[in-house]
Each structure stands twice: as C-alpha cells, then as structure tokens.
Amino acid sequence: MGMKPIEVRPLTTAELTQLDELYRRTKDVRVRNRAQMILLGAEDKMTAPPIAKIVRQDEQTVRRWIKRFNAEGISGLSDEPKSGAPKRVTDAYRKRLLVVVRR
User: Mind giving me the DSSP string for 38-81?
Assistant: First the structure.
C-alpha cells in the first residue's frame, strides 16, 4: 500500500477566497466539483479517500485534480479547450432548447 497520501499544498488567504468564489459562482458543475475537492483538502486537511466519498468521484480522479491544482493553481481546475473538436451543441440548438424549457 505504501503510497503517501497526496495533500493539497498550503494555500494563501487570497487563494482560499478565490476558490470559495469559484465554488459559489461557477455555472460549470465539473469546475465546482473540483473546487470543492481542493477546499476539502485545504480547509479540512482531508486526503483523497474521504474527499472522493464526499464528491462522489473515484480516488484517482481526486488525486489527479489535487496534483494539477498544486502545480497550476486555480486556473488548473478549468477544462482545457479541446483542440479542434467543434462544439456539439450549436447556438441554434441552445436557443431552441431554451424556448422549449421555458414553456
């Protein structure tokens, strides 16, 4: 088992504030989920296994996001734009969907 648990690096007050803002304001569920992982690790000193249970992800996923956050900071929590692949949902489709949903 000898794997040392990965931990979120110590955060500055500014980083904690930014993470909290991101968690509260983002419309992207995946980004909110990642921000929550980091907040749990930073504020509650949790490691991947208990964080994984709370956010309903597997431990490997939690470790990957903690590593990425530790290396890249808050900007590392966003999805990188997928190169080349066009958006599957067109603006026309989105408008039509909104019309249907609002009925």
Answer: HHHHHHS---HHHHHHHHT--HHHHHHHHHHHHHH-GGGGSPPP
Residues 6+ apart with CB under 8 A from 38: 8, 19, 65, 66, 69, 77
Exposed, middle or buried by CB within 10 Å (0-12, 13-18, 19+), for 34? buried
- Comparing CA positions, the residue from 38, 76, 78 lying closest to residue 54 is 38
Contact between 33 and 57 (Cβ < 8 Å): yes
Separation CA 21–CA 32 (nearest Å): 10
| Structure confidence by residue, pLDDT tens digits, 46-103 | 999 999 999 999 999 999 999 999 999 999 999 876 566 555 667 777 777 777 777 6
- pTM for this prediction: 0.74
Q: Give CA–CA dist 25/23, Å, rounded.
A: 6
